[in-house]
Amino acid sequence: MIDPHAGHWPEGPPVTPDRALAELRDGNQRFVTGTRIHPNQDAEHRAALAGAQTPFAVIFGCSDSRLAAEIIFDRGLGDLFVVRTAGHTMGPEVLGSIEYAVTVLHTPLVVVLGHNSCGAVTAARDAVAGGTQPTGHLRAVVDAIVPSVSVATSRNIDDIDQIVDIHIQRTVDHLLAHSQPLARAVAAGTCAVVGMSYQLGAGEVREVAGQTRALQ
């Protein structure tokens, strides 16, 4: 575990998926209970990171301004490799960024982080229901989420937060289906992919999806 006074792990950052996930859970619990320790945010640690980074988790999350990963997981500099898009929609740049963290930085955990009351998911649900289609490049964001809404519709699900959970699971599946390097790392047990949903009011993150092996 971390040393809150030194601001780092005496034995180094987590190198296994289980330990990395445990650190995120612990950090979120500190955030929820108001007992944050703000690790790895001191000048000494900043200087130590100047030559290299060893993040222990990739956070692929929604761009929502209330979803700041380092804050809600009570982490600091060099801890998290963060990639964010509206509705955690993905393209080649997102996949490449995640693959870089997993294959070059050897990050042992990838988290897909959505949240309740997601505006992007709501826009997609409204578009499927026959509402006004967004214009400009926002249309691409909505179009990327529509398949998740369609899955929810096939299950008679209309609640936005349940649709968010489906979208998180589909994003986890999409990552493994479209990234061979990530799928190989998961199959080898050196990395895991977990889906989480952040609750805006409570500040709590709950796990809703996960893969510990590659999809067949």
From TrEMBL:
Q: Which reaction does it catalyse?
A: hydrogencarbonate + H(+) = CO2 + H2O
Question: Organism's domain of life?
Answer: Bacteria
Q: Which InterPro entries match?
A: Carbonic_anhydrase, Carbonic_anhydrase_CS, Carbonic_anhydrase_sf
Residue ranges the record marks as coiled coil = none
Question: Keywords in UniProt for this one?
Answer: Lyase, Zinc
User: Which Enzyme Commission number(s) are listed?
Assistant: 4.2.1.1
Read off the Pfam families from this record: Pro_CA
Q: What is its EC class? A: lyase
Q: What Gene3D superfamilies does its record include?
A: Carbonic anhydrase
Q: Record's PROSITE patterns?
A: PROK_CO2_ANHYDRASE_1, PROK_CO2_ANHYDRASE_2
Give the SUPFAM superfamilies listed for this entry.
beta-carbonic anhydrase, cab
Q: What does this protein do?
A: Reversible hydration of carbon dioxide. Catalyzes the reversible hydration of carbon dioxide to form bicarbonate.
Protein family membership: Belongs to the beta-class carbonic anhydrase family.
Quote the protein name from its UniProt record. Answer: Carbonic anhydrase
The protein's organism comes out as: Phytohabitans aurantiacus
